[in-house]
Every structure is written in C-alpha cells, then in structure tokens.
Amino acid sequence: MFDNAKPQREIKHKLVHFHTYKHSFSGACGTFYILGDIPLNLSNLRVTLMLVTNEENVRYRTKLDLYENLEIEKFCYEVIEKEFQFKFITLQKDLHTLTDLLEKYREELYNDAFKIEFERPKNHLTNKTKKQVIDFLKSSNLIKALDTKLEETGIVGEENARVLLYLIALSYKSPFPLHALIQSGTGSGKSHLLKKIMACLPKADVMSITRTTGKSFYHYANDDLVGKCIIIQDMDGFNDDALFSFRELQSEGFITTSTTYKDKLGNIKSRIKTVNAYFSSIASTTRTSVYSDNFNRSIPIHLDESIEQTQRIVHYQNSVIAGNVDALKEEQAIDFLVNCTMQLEKLHVLNRFAEKIVLPAHVPFLRRSNLQLQKLILLVTYLHQYQRDRSPCGKILSTKDDVAIAFDLFVHALYLKTDELDGQTRRFFEELKPYLHERNQKTFRLREIRLHFSMSKTQLHRYISTLIDHELVLVKSGTAYKGYVYEIQNDDDIKHSNATLKNHLNAILEEL
What we know:
Elements: H1 2-12, E1 16-19, E2 22-26, E3 30-35, E4 46-53, E5 59-65, H2 69-82, H3 88-114, H4 127-137, H5 142-152, H6 159-170, E6 179-183, H7 190-199, E7 206-209, E8 225-232, H8 240-252, E9 254-262, E10 268-285, H9 292-295, E11 299-301, H10 307-322, H11 327-343, E12 349-350, H12 366-383, E13 396-397, H13 400-418, H14 423-438, E14 443-444, H15 446-453, H16 457-469, E15 473-479, E16 483-488, H17 494-511
Parallel strand pairs: 6-10, 6-11, 7-8, 8-10, 12-13
Antiparallel strand pairs: 1-2, 2-3, 3-4, 4-5, 9-10, 14-16, 15-16
Helix pairs in contact: 2-3, 4-11, 5-6, 12-13, 13-17, 14-16
C-alpha cells in the first residue's frame, strides 16, 4: 500500500521553482513557500517555511527541520489552534509530501554539485570506424598523413609545430609524457592553435587552465591530474607559487603538503596530503623570458610570425567569414583524430639506438634536453605502434625512421635551446640585420625601426634592451632627451650555429 501511495503523491504534486532561493508547493491546506538556501547536508532538512492558507490568505512563518517529527507536530498544532477548519492529518500529510519533493530536488542539487564534468569515454568505435583509424595509423608515411589531417582541422601553416604539439598533447597516453612551451608574440595565433589541438583529444582528458592560484594544485583529489593533457592558455596567469607546484608535478609526478585536521576527539593533528599526477601539458606565453626551471622542463616552440604566414591566416579568416570553408569537413577531421587518440594503447617502447644518440655538450640543460629527445623518439614509435615490430617481451621497437622523424621535429626546439635569445627577439634581430645591410647602414634610431616593422614602442624597447644585455647591440651616441643612436656590435651568426647542430644530428643518423 505504501509503495502504491508514494508514486501517486509524486505524480500529483510538484515543486515550483521561482529561482534558487524561492520554491513553492501547493497542498490541501494552502501554498507552502521555501525561502533561502536548501541545505546540502543530508543529515537535516532545516528550511525557512511560509504557509499561505487557501481561504483567508493568512500567512504562517517558521524555521523548521522537516526531519524532526516533534517540530512538525508542534507547528501543526500551532496552525490548527488558529485555523479550526484544518485537520491535523491533512496538514501533516502536506508537510510530508513537501519533504519528499525537497529531498528529490536536493538530490539533484547534490549530484550537480559533486558530479564529474565528463565521464571518461570508453573506446566503443564501430567496426567500420575502427578499421578506418587503424588503416590510417598503418599509413606508410604516417607523419605526413597526420600533418594533412591537422591541416584539415583548420590549423593554417605551422607544419612542424602542429605535428609536434599534437604528439606532445597525446603523450599522456604513453609511458613518457612530454611538455611544450609556446613562446610567441601577441596575435601570433597561439589561442587558435591550442583550441584546435585540444579539440583533437577526448574532452574528458583535457584540462584547460587560464589562471590558477598558488595553492590550487595542492587541493586536487588524489588522481585528478592522472591521465590528462593540461592546456595553459597564458602563463601570465601563474604566480611564482603556481609555477613551483606545476614544475614539481611535471618532474616528480606528485606534490605533497603538510596540513592539519581534527580527529574524532577534536584534537588537532598533522598529516601529509599527496596529489598524484601523470599528464602532458602545453603552455603558451608572450613573455620573452620564462623562469628557467619551468622553461627547461618543456620543449620550446616558436610560431611562425612571418608576413607569409600572416597572409595565409588572413586568407583563412576571410574564407571562413565568406562561407568558403567547409566547417563539417573540419569537424570530421577533428573527430577522426579524437578516435585515433582513443585507439592508441598504452604500450612500452624500446629504442635500441639510444646509446648512440648524444647531443653536443654545448646544448643548454643537456640532461633534460637529452631526455626530451629520447622521449620524443619513443613517442614517435608509440604513434607507429600498428607498424612496428615487437620484442619478445611485447615492447614496440624503435626504427631508424623514428629517430629521423624525431630529429626533424626536435631540431627547431634545439635551435631555441642553444640560442641565448628568445624566439621573438631572435626573429627581430635576424630581420634587423638585412634591413640595415640593404640600406648600407651601420647605425639606426628606434623610431625608424619602429615605423618600418610596425611594432609598439614598448615591444621594440624590450627587444633592444635584451640585445644590449647580450652585447649584440650597443648605444653609439645620443642622449635620453634627443634619443639614442644604436649600432649592431656583434653578429652572432646563428645560422652557422644551427647548421653545425643540424650536421651533428645528420652524422648520428648516418652512423646508425
């Protein structure tokens, strides 16, 4: 009988929601209004209640715990003393119905407050889709096919950077996660590139962070940062404490903090809280210099800021607005790469050539740079897992082609690592030298350069200050009032240095 009665009450009555802090229920004795917050603590249901009677429109207000029968009975008696037409059982039944409705609503609130934003998708691909994905991963020139697919998603240019970023992003699925740092100027396309790379991964595996406090990483649950790709839109949103905790998560795979808590007897005690982490990451910044401990843990990437690349991007933007870009084709390419990411299994890789791969001693942060290159080789092999042979213990075996691909992808990062200038300042300096050479000039003024390169005064001052600090440019003459005249003091011939590094890598390949 009870089972039959409860569904009837739920179907007949409903809770009306005016907004978050006001709800109502129409019962036999009148309209019950619930004002204020509904407690999420499941041990009680204390509410502010207002009853408006049906006939005389009289209002009765009280604070009531709907889980306390004595409080409910007391309220019923108080109302019945003034409303003689009311029956105790009728009013009590209304309050019980209200309790059921509030419990149901509170359960919805509780689930919304504590639910996981995305459930991890299971790899349930149709046989047809799975075959298409595996055939793609078996392509004879998989890196080229991957580059073409990334272009179809809407990433214009950046052929080397987009492939490398995608590989780094999906490395959270492999046994060797990697991290990237994009250093480029404002308006260079960092946000668009990051958005497209994020879209090529399962939504449940991506964490996009714009800003974080110094202590926020310590408050994640134990495994919230396991199996994730973390996208940092701009590292300007990270203070020193946040940068410290983030680089510890990158290197150690966990962070610990000592906190206090009260035991069951009320005594204050200490305990160690650990947050585990296993993730890949891509961060971007417009800064010309980043704290070295964070910089050397990542593979540096500088985007193409040339006029030709700008024209390609402008053409793409105009095509989108004109409706000449197939948005459906872009979405299909993105979905296909998501399926590829999900299809890759977490397998171990063995590189038999590792001992023969030695970087030059002058490469900064040689220990970390060497480890990044070795991991990238393993990652390239991991991507080719449907094509590579297996060792007797089931590990995927790297080939010379994998080493060559990794060298080709990593060499630009090595250029940035070995260069004493950051990517933005280097680009400016390499454009400044031919500008002066064409005009047969040895000296220059800032206004002349600013107008020619169409850059802000602040940006140009930052570049010149960096070049002066590195003794590549000096102040030839002038005053602060009339302006200074600058001269290039030292042409560091970065092209020769890069060529030497490239030849070293080619020599390693020939030896293999």
